[in-house]
Amino acid sequence: MPQDSRIPPETSQFVSAASLRVRLDWFNKLRWIAAGAVVAAILVVGVVGGYPLPVVPMSVATVVLLLLNVFYVWRNRRIPPENVGTELRLVKLQMAGDLLVLTKLVNLTGGVENPLLFIYVLHVVIASLLFKGRDIFAVAWFAILLFTGTVALEFFEVVPHHHLLSASDMTHELPYILTTLASFWLVLLASAWMGATIMDHNRSIKDELVARQQELIKADQAKTDFFRFVTHEVKSPVSTAQSAVETALELGGSSMDPSSVDLLSRAVGRLEQATDMVKDLADLTRGGILTRDALRPVDVREMVGLAVEHQRELAERREQTIDFALPETPVVMTTSRSMVEKIAANLVSNAVRYNRKGGTVTVVLEDREDRVVLIVRDEGIGIDPADQERIFDEFYRAPAAQKLTNLGTGLGLPIVRRFVTNLRGTIQVTSGPDEGAEFRVVLPRQTPPLGDEPGADGSTTS
Amino acid sequence: MAEAKILVIDDDIDLVEIIRLTLENVGYAVIDAQSGERGLEKARGEGPDLILLDVMMGSVDEGFQVAYQLRGDAATKEIPILMLTAVGDQTGFDFDPAKDQEFLPVDEFLEKPISPRKLVDMVRKHLPTTI
């Protein structure tokens, strides 16, 4: 997990200005489609079908809608989203305008006779995606007011009634009107209620998830800080102790009895182990180096080649073969050299250490368009499926690995995973007991510097 | 022949003692300083033939600052400097050794824990040949 992935406070409760803007853009597209549909209806029904549509007033309403949309699109392009409140007010205004135009069009195309009145429901659904409880009902009531008002005005002949397609006159059939209005009210209010309930529930779940994630990030940071502190405090005593014992052996070893020399040599071995642990912890806890300066174009073949070369001697002693063919052309990435180096070194060294005697270690470097794939495969003891997630936990060593050697810090794979995550890559392991193991690391060709990650403002496109 | 004089600048008195024993054992004279400031004084006053400098004393980069000052002073700029880095530090800098050695004003980095044999080898390698 990147160490300073941030969740913007406004993601919670529930939208940011930027994410609202994404939705506004989406509604602008819907509005083009709606206007296009009306134009198509005028052409197909009125002109081709020959039904007596009020073409001129309908066209005027459509043009009004189109002009409004041109203005909305222009505004979204020109003015960056800043404030959730402003954006929300704007959505409400736009929605009111849409409902007015819709009501005029319904009035022109049969009023209560027009089944397209269900389009009002769409607006309530959209409102429940954007607003909280009371505002959703406000939209529903506004739609009810507009539609019921239109029907009433037509009924009392205050505004003219346009028949839908046929000349049949349902404007004055009171039972029909009342049934239609009752279902209209029911559907709109029920949609508003359901929308509000479901979305409130979703938002509370989302808030909870965000809060949990923040806690996890904090806990992870605290752990890293603790490791860093311990590493810092332990490294000097450990390395001075190792130097002291080595010096004592060097200067006075010849006059000591052999069993003392043996004991001190063992002490050096154990101190070396502690030093390895300190080195690994230092790797694990270093952060904040993914600045623009630390990311340079490098040819990854060098780093992987180096990792392989460093293990050749041990591999030969164990009668193993390392099968590694360098790609012929440079594999250039903009990334952290030291992190990629460490990832390759740890994976290849693990593969040799846990391989069977006489086995083969296969290292493959694949150059894909926007990413680079490193595969390291061995034929050794393998990893039990139950251990496959835990091997990336700090200090965890699988029982089979412990049995094989008591050296090893339990930090190699955690470092690999942390670095891969820092570089915005992924790592996968495929293995089974005694089936060998395959580690597959996919890294992006360009690692963005910290702070440039997409979606940092919490925006979503859905 | 005068024996070569090595100045050890490090605030870890145990490590200074270890280095002293190792180097005196092969015939060098060792003087020491436990802070960057004292180290600069002794470098100027006592004219050592080589300086072993700890990278991290009071602050993270005190050693680097001392190295820059030594290189900036006509009296000390020719003295070879071997910089002792703490374990795990060197990997943390994202070094490009080929490039970075040029602008870091030291002759060699030695990562702790440094074995007595390697220390003696490195001191021999960097001591001016006239001694």
Question: How would you briefly describe this protein structure?
Answer:
The complex is a heterodimer of chains A (462) and B (131). Helix content of chain A is 60%, strand content 9%. Chain A has 462 residues and is of the alpha+beta class.
Q: Tally the beta strands of chain B.
A: 5
- What fraction of residues of chain B sit in β-strands? 15-25%
Give me the strand/helix succession of chain B. EHEHEHEHEH
Uncertain runs of chain A are: 1-13, 451-462
The number of distinct structural domains of chain B comes to 1
Range of helix content of chain A: 55-70%
How confident overall, as mean pLDDT of chain A?
84
- Rounded to an integer in angstroms, the radius of gyration calculated over CA atoms of chain A is 35 Å
Based on the coordinates given, report the CATH architecture of chain B. Answer: 3-Layer(aba) Sandwich
CATH topology of chain B: Rossmann fold
Structural classification of chain A: alpha+beta
Structural domain count of chain A: 3
Assembly state: heterodimer
SSE-based structural type of chain B: alpha/beta
Describe the structure.
The complex is a heterodimer of chains A (462) and B (131). Helices cover 60% and strands 9% of the residues of chain A. By secondary structure, chain A is of the alpha+beta class. Chain A has a five-stranded mixed sheet, covered by helices on one side. In chain A, helix 1 (17-48) packs antiparallel against helix 2 (55-78). Chain A is elongated. Helices cover 40% and strands 18% of the residues of chain B. Chain B contains five helices and five strands; from the N terminus they run βαβαβαβαβα. Chain B has a five-stranded parallel sheet with strand order 2-1-3-4-5, with helices on both faces. In chain B, helix 2 (36-46) packs parallel to helix 3. Chain B is globular. Chains A and B meet through helix 6, helix 7 and helix 9 of A and helix 1 of B.
